[in-house]
Amino acid sequence: MKRVAVLFFSEAHYWKSCQGLISDLAACYDRAFSGAVDFFGISHDPSTWEATAQKIAAGNYSVISFIDFRFYLPFWTETLKKYLKSQVTWGWHTDGSFGNRMPEWISLSKVLKSESVVVFASSTAHQGFVEGILDGENLVRRFPFPFVASRQIGEESDGRKWRQKWGIRDDQKVYLYTGRVSYQKNVHHLVNLFSEWKSKDAVLVIYGKSDNGGCRQNPQGVYLHYASEIFFESLNQAEASGVRVIYPGFAEEAELNHAYLGSDVFVSLSTSIGEDFGRSVAEALSLGLSCVLTAWGGYKDFGDIPGVRTIPIQLKDEGLDIDTRNFFQQMEVAPEKKEKVAEAFLRKWSLDAQAELLRKLYDKPGFFEGISSKGKNYFKALFTSESEREYFDLLEPYLHSYWK
Fold it and tell me: Mean pLDDT for the chain?
């Protein structure tokens, strides 16, 4: 069996969703290469890196894999190569931040030309995007993030207590959103559509921190503050229309678990450029929630799970363009039985299934030949933009061609 070194930063990722992805990837490698895998938690202190690289190189591994999305890949690759005594297969798991790390991939293309490499993309849409940027033979593989259903969720009674806490009646259907509350996640659109739907038997519950990612300018050219000027305005309109929208803000894991247990349907209208997979959707499906989702990015790969309904969308300058009638119809469909949804999801995304797939993907690595012409244009856009907003304006057409 291959001997595998798995690298990640020892300090926790700042995004909670990424913490879960990295933890689940580590568990998947442990299952796939049991007894032949070592894990290296890398300090953020650069003064320790050279010694750590020597220790890794001394292990005579046949595979070196990076499962953390924050790595300084050119440094680590060049430093490890300096000490390696034999050829290895390099593995990289990419996420929605891939597009923001182009300088690293440009450098890597010079260091690893024609070497044995596997680049993992987390969905069909993400694979298409990464393949369009990188140049190589059999290089990019679709490998959805595994899902380890090992945490202590709670009991059904916890879900009932959660409903009672928020004054939700037994006969009301709860629609749940968890994740970033931002412009690209279209949470304000969700609230506005829910208000327009005007269902008296439904409650919308939103958990998450707000941020200004992807926020647009107003007609006067001033960037809007998402929470105070867009999202909370939609909450006020919902209250005025007489529908029930609950926004507790950020919540600890126990509260979220009880919310999943007490809810009926997970709903997200995200068109985020980072929607390569959908960690919140995976959590909801693992607990049996039916889902109403935009047909966007990694969400589309969940479409064959019972209870998942995806809605085609278009983008416009003001954000989301959605068929309102279709949205209302999908919201009104009765949820599937939770046991059926959870069983179908875990059969496909379980640790055992993904561990077997991971071993197979490493059996036939590809070869890294550099950056495609599209990738070079993308890289140019990154460095010619004068602001983060201008950069995203240049970036989005590349992603949208694959995400839609």
Answer: 86
